[in-house]
Design a protein that fits this description.
Low-confidence stretches: 229-245
Order of helices and strands: HHHHHEHHEHHHHHHHHHHHH
Radius of gyration: 46 Å
Strand order of the largest sheet: 1-2
Largest sheet: 2 strands, parallel
Number of strands: 2
Number of helices: 19
Distance between the termini: 140 Å
Shape: elongated
């Protein structure tokens, strides 16, 4: 029976391990000598740390002293720069180009034209059978003609009858110059330009009345421009006070210039302008180039300027060119206005180049106080200017270089001479090399850059 009993399960299980009780650490006794050693080590550590802190503080103090010295030097440098800048700023400022060619405008006149009532054009309308429907009368005749002019029918009628009465011509010209109505002004301008163009081409249309220079002159005076004050003003460069309360000419100046352009194309016995009057107009239009308020008219001004130059015949032109150049050079001061006047002559024809070159030469001789017209003498005068001298006016030197460039560039005879080429090259080298890059004088960089550019251009040719 005993063999039938199987052993109990717990008899075969591992015995439960019983951990040993922890052994107690023995206390280490620290002696007095050990305490003294630890104290000495701590003192040494503190001493080393304090020494390191002192070294760091000393290094920082040295850096502070160095920084203070650097700041002091920087402050001195800034003060010197401020002094130099104040010297540059205290120099006379160069004013931009521009003159006030137009002063106070007068009130645009409104003229009565009683002759219109008896004009053939109006009478033909009144007597036409269509008038029974329109019921046009003499009192409304001018209003009717204005509508016909604005719609372009008056010009068509003139081309049909090939005749312009004196009353119609004066009335339309007055509208061109003084009408505040832009549509009427432009229509009158188109009307007159077409008549004058026909007059210069085929002369099919008979015109009983033509405008004269006195009419143009009077209109310019009403606009605020005074030709006499421009032609005979002093050399201060201002024909009219620059502080004028008005702002430029009226819109009619555009139509007036177009009409002048058309008048210049009529030559011979029917010429509207005389040679002297055309010379005055050349000078007047140079003044318009100098007025900033007329910049928007530049294209139209160039067109009429070209027509005025071509107005003269070959026999008249040399003397005309001389007189115009003399008049302009005597009154334009040595500033940017003279360069603007010279460079406003942009034509590529022989006469335009001659006028531009002559004007540049005449202005250069005046500013250098050079009596001789010899090219070598003028260039030697330029070379004699010491651009290193602090008292040298580099702005005027820039003007001299620009004028000389225009003179030689558009004079085909002088610019090919060997002596002129050599002297001009010496002058340019003198200006480009003698002025240092660090030169802070006004216009120093302008003179150096322009001379270098011109010297390079001449070398490449």
């Amino acid at each position: 029976m005993a063999g039938d009993f199987s052993p109990l399960h717990f008899e075969f299980e591992d015995a439960i391990g019983i951990s040993q009780p922890p052994t107690k650490k023995k206390k280490v006794l620290i002696g007095l000598d050990d305490l003294l050693d630890d104290c000495e080590k701590e003192k040494k550590r503190r001493k080393a740390r304090n020494s390191k802190v002192k070294k760091i503080r000393k290094a920082c103090e040295v850096e502070d002293v160095f920084d203070e010295a650097a700041e002091e030097k920087l402050s001195e440098c800034v003060e010197k720069c401020q002094i130099e800048i104040s010297k540059i700023g205290s120099e006379e400022e160069v004013s931009p180009w521009g003159i006030a060619a137009f002063g106070n405008q007068e009130k645009l006149p409104h003229q009565e034209h009683p002759d219109l009532r008896t004009s053939c054009v109006l009478q033909s309308f009144l007597q036409h059978e269509v008038n029974s429907l329109v019921e046009l009368n003499v009192d409304k005749g001018e209003d009717f003609l204005e509508k016909v002019l604005a719609n372009g029918w008056l010009l068509h009628l003139v081309h049909v009858v090939e005749h312009v009465e004196s009353s119609i011509a004066k009335w339309a010209f007055n509208l061109l110059l003084y009408s505040p109505d832009i549509r009427l002004m432009e229509a009158a301008c188109d009307f007159w330009c077409a008549i004058l163009t026909d007059k210069s081409d085929s002369c099919r249309i008979k015109v009983d009345w033509l405008p004269r220079y006195s009419d143009i002159k009077g209109a310019l005076r009403v606009y605020g421009f005074h030709p006499e004050s421009f032609l005979h003003a002093s050399s201060d460069g201002h024909g009219v006070p620059a502080d004028s309360v008005t702002k430029g000419p009226p819109l009619n100046i555009n139509s007036c210039i177009r009409c002048i352009n058309a008048c210049c194309k009529i030559r011979g016995n029917d010429s509207i302008f005389s040679s002297l009057e055309a010379e005055e107009l050349l000078v007047v239009f140079v003044s318009l180039f100098l007025d900033r308020q007329c910049v928007g008219l530049s294209l139209l001004l160039h067109e009429v300027f070209s027509s005025l130059i071509n107005f003269f015949n070959d026999d008249e032109w040399p003397e005309t060119c001389h007189r115009v150049v003399k008049c302009l050079s005597n009154r334009i001061p040595c500033n940017l206005n003279c360069l603007r006047a010279v460079e406003s002559i942009t034509g590529v024809d022989i006469r335009s180049k001659q006028l531009r070159s002559s004007l540049a030469l005449s202005c250069l001789m005046k500013y250098l106080d050079e009596k001789s017209c010899d090219a070598d003498d003028i260039l030697r005068s330029l070379i004699s200017i010491n651009v290193k001298d602090k008292n040298c006016d580099l702005f005027k030197m820039y003007i001299y270089l620009s004028l000389t460039e225009n003179w030689l560039l558009f004079d085909p005879v002088v610019k090919t001479e060997a002596s002129v080429k050599e002297l001009w090259g010496n002058c340019l080298r003198n200006c480009s090399c003698a002025i240092a890059v660090t030169d802070l004088r006004a216009y120093a960089s302008n003179v150096r850059s322009k001379a270098s550019f011109l010297l390079q251009s001449n070398t490449n040719k």
